[in-house]
Amino acid sequence: NRNVAKALGVYVLYILFKYRSTAMGAKPRKDIVGPRGLPLIGNVITILGIPRNQLAQHNAMMHRKYGKVWCYTVPKIGRIIRFNDPDILEHVLKTNFWAYEKGALLRDNVSDLLGQGIFAVDGHQWKWQRKLASHVFTVKGFRTYTSEVFVQEGQKVVDYLGKIADQGRVIDLQEVFYKFTLDSFGEVSFGQSFGCLDNPEEDVEFAAAFDRMNTAVFNRLFDASWRLREWYTGVDKQVSRDKKIVVDFALGIIRKRREEGYNKPQKDLLQLFMDSEGDDGKPLSEEMLKDLCLNFIIAGRDTTAQALSWMFYLLHRSSVNRGILPKLVSEISSSLGNSSPTYEVLKQMKYAEACLYESLRIYPSVPRNLKICVQDDVWPDGTKVYKGESVAWHPWAMGRNEAIWGPDAEVYNPERWMTGEKPSSSKFPAFHTGPRTCLGQQFATVEAVTIMSLLFRSFTFELMDPHTEPEYTAGLTLNMAKGLPVRVKRRV
Ligand code: HEM
After folding, report:
1. Of 358, 432, 438, 450, best ligand 1 pocket probe by most atoms within 8 Å of the beta carbon
2. In which residues is heme bound (predicted)?
3. What pTM was estimated for this model as a whole?
């Protein structure tokens, strides 16, 4: 009837007026700057128009235009407030930690890959997993065990690169680092390597499946209708197949361990978790053991391999300060000589650590991040954040921000880390900060310093293209799209 039609018309006009420049559902706000959006859909068209591998650059450009806090709106997610400031980061990730969560939307998008593991969950679920995992990392002997694994797997890389050097071949160093970190993780997590370095020229099924899932999951974060898209394109079937490969692998190892028991002197991650209790005082379920181990592999494999790749790029690119590499090589030879690296010696190699962290400042393996506000909040600069709004920060943009790092922010200068006063984790958030800070920072640092020591002690490297910055792939982490082709020579 006419009255209903009239009421509907008025309602539509009201909605169109209310959401004239924001996505439907996002609270319209005049107190915060950002690009004007379209009625009902907000800024979604602009966002989708940004090439996925240019998100970091785009975000840095927007901060230059709008300052340290700006926002946009998209359907389903609502308002996303972006910031680029250590004080705000400290507030969001530390001071007012409980006011922000990863949220159900993220959990839903990534559940195929992360299940109910530590990375994906919030609140009580996260708290007890964090407590358990933190305990495992401080178990006596775990550090020694892991550094022995790094040396053992690193030696395989040295043997392989020796052959490549003798053949005069060009090699993708990033791929070698992926194999090294995955095999090391296999040993550390499950007491068995994935075998990538035993036959480095061949693909390993687990790694290939894992990589495809990673890409599929990342693409979901940009697409509210991903279920439909994946069904239409058949990606859903591929994801199911890949998930089965990854999950069967992990469950197979867990079941075998249950049947055969464990009698090695050093416990791997799986055994440490199997010997622990859940928050209900009972042993962990198979499902939880699988999620925990897979979350650790996800956390540590790509991040560390990429950090190594970007560091090798920065150390060899044409614009590098020529004094850095000789200083690093000299520290390696004076600390190690010809002996095998040990945890204690590696921890003393401060210049090697500085080279790694300086690289992570410019190329953080996790370049962007986002949380959902679950309690209204006010930031130190006065910005109001309402429940349901998302907040996002960009370690990539923060590392290049002159207001944070000074006019030479874009220069690779490990000396920044040698002054005795380390930058706070809010200024350098490559490993996150606050209660959810990375549990594997020491692990990753020792792993990276081990492999770089072994490699620089035996080889020299030459980039095939030292003048061009490698392109990134669209992904949760900063992968080089075409790898890092290098020529390797034996050091004379
Ligand atoms: C260069 C290497 C690494 C970088 C740059 C890095 C960075 C990060 C970042 C940014 C987070 C926060 C992610 C988020 O919650 O959104 C994180 C969390 C985490 N990382 Fe790392 N990570 C590295 C290596 C590792 C390694 C080797 C391990 C394991 C041995 C590890 C274990 C974890 C775990 C368990 C968490 C989750 C902590 C929690 O939610 O309470 N990471 N890492």
Report:
1. 438
2. 438
3. 0.92
